[in-house]
TrEMBL record:
Protein name as catalogued: Uncharacterized protein
Amino acid sequence: MSIEIQNVLMPHSGDPELLDQIISACREGRHIIVCSDSDTYLDAICYASYKIIRATDGLTPRRLYPAVTEELLKTFNKAVDSLTIDEAIRSSSVTSRDILIIPEVRGFSASDWTILTKLLKTFVGANVSVLIFSSTRSVSEAAISDFVADLGVQLLYLPVLTATDLESIKEINEPHLQEKAQVLFSKLSKDFLGAVTDVEKGIELADIAVKRSGRVWSLLLVLMAILAVSSIVWFDKRFLDYVIGFVLFIRRQIILIWDWLTLSDFQIF
C-alpha cells in the first residue's frame, strides 16, 4: 500500500491490496460497493478506507451516516456548496474529488437509491464518487442492482476469513491495539467460524446462572409459603417438624444447585 496508515487493523493479508484498488477507483472517479456478509469486516475496511482517503492528496472524505434521505441531500449539498449550478452540471477538469462514504445502507429505500443516482448523474461537475459498504445479500436487491447498472458501479467482495487469518489478528504486538484486536478477533470469529470466545462464554454463562438461580429461589419461596399456610391450617407438631425439615432439605439443594451453576467449566448443551 502506497500510503501508511496507523492504528488500523486489517483482518486479511490481501486487505492492503484491496485498499489500493479502492483508492485508485476513487481517484479515477469510479463508484464502488464493498460487499461482505460480515458487518464487522465491513466496518474495519470502512474505517481503514476513511483514514487512507483522508491522507490522500486530492481526495476529501464525506461520511454519510445515518443513510437516510435527509443526510444524503445535506452531505451532497456540502460537496456542491462552492459551485455554481453551471459548474456543478458540467464535466470538470479538476482532479480533486469528494468521496461520499456510506458505511451501511440498511436505511436506504428504493427512492434513496434513485435520488443518489440522479444526483451523481446530474451534478457531474461536483466530482463526487461514492464508496458504499453493503452486505452481499443486499446487492442483489432490485434498487441496488439498478444503481450498479446505471452508474457502472464496481463491486468488490471481501474474502471469507479462515481460522489462520483470524489467528494473525491476535498476534498484534502494539500494546495500544491489543484490546481492539481482541474485540475484532472475537466478532470475526462469530461471523466466520461461529465460535464464541472464552470471555463471551463466561459472560453468557454467568447471565444464565443468575437467571436460573432466580427461578429456583422463586420456586423455593412459593413452596415455603404453601407449607407455612398448610402448617397454620392443619397445625400439628409432627407436621411442623416435617415442614422445617423439608425447608432445610430444599436449602441444601439450592446450595448444591448454585455451586453447579457457577462452575467455571459448566457447559450448555
